[in-house]
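Quick one: structure for this chain?
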Amino acid sequence: MKDIATDKKYMQRALDLSLLAAGRTSPNPLVGCVIVKDGEIVGEGYHLRAGTPHAEIHALRAAGSKAQGADVYVTLEPCSHYGRTPPCADALIKAGVKRVCVALTDPNPLVNGQGLRKLQEAGIVVETGILADKANKINEAFIKAITQKMPFVLYKCAMTLDGKTAVASGDSKWISSFDARKYVHHLRNIYDVIMVGSGTVIQDDPLLTCRHIQGGRNPVRLIVDATLSLPLNAKVLNPDNGLCIIAASRAANRTKMERLRAMDNVQVWQYDTERYVPLSSLLQDIVAHGWNSILLEGGGTLAGKMLAEKLIDKVEFILAPKIAGEGPSPFTSFKLAQMSEAIGLYNLELSEIGEDFKISGYIKY
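Got it. Here's what it folds into:
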């Protein structure tokens, strides 16, 4: 008789393993694999980064000959095609495994059930859907990128209880507690790209780097700046902090564009639009360059435009127990005529973080 509790236990282990590579695998998914024989884990592994062996290969190497007749738990359907690495389905068949449990079918058109069929045709028992909801959430960015050619966008914003992101003068340091700010660096560590508007760069001169996280890495910085108004000495242009992309329009200052493009770590993507950067096209280009996820950090004008164009998937609001009075809001440029048009959220989660509260939810368009 099939032991569902045991299957869930080992699949949870595989999911936990997959998260060890969060922020490192794009454009590939996060995948973990556990091999079990006679009630004992004999091999396990996870996908480290694109172009390297997949999770199943790491686990099979660890298991060696013990993989024969074993049960395999993998968070995403084993691939069935030759890409930058050979098919994992073939490796599992060659190893002589008895049973393969899969959380999610791979939505990649190159796989999409073919890996499962190959295993079944080889006489291997295949089970699917174990902890599928958890696996789906872990790979929500990959799934959106591979099926829609658009990145998953999380809008993170710190605000006071009266919904202000700064006081009237524009000062915003610091709305949230240190613990909440450290959490933001955790997000920067796992999202591929961090996105802000030129106003945020001019007002705050941020680094947009990942700090306070051991082993953390900086995301790609993406600045939406149609006219190239940011100063050439802005901290985001520091070559020590990795790639910085500036999205501009035909209205961009040509002299400044040449100076920016001369910097080793800066790319200027100029769009054939008169004044505003076409945000949808920009996001499509992000996926085309191999990045699946964007952390949108501000400001309210850019976030309002992104919301109006239905480009934000999820929000995380850090609510600080403070009152600021007059000041900017998280969606400054987003305007509605009636409350009945207000944007709803679903799958809400509420938690405490330091002295603040974190509310997260998915956008219901």
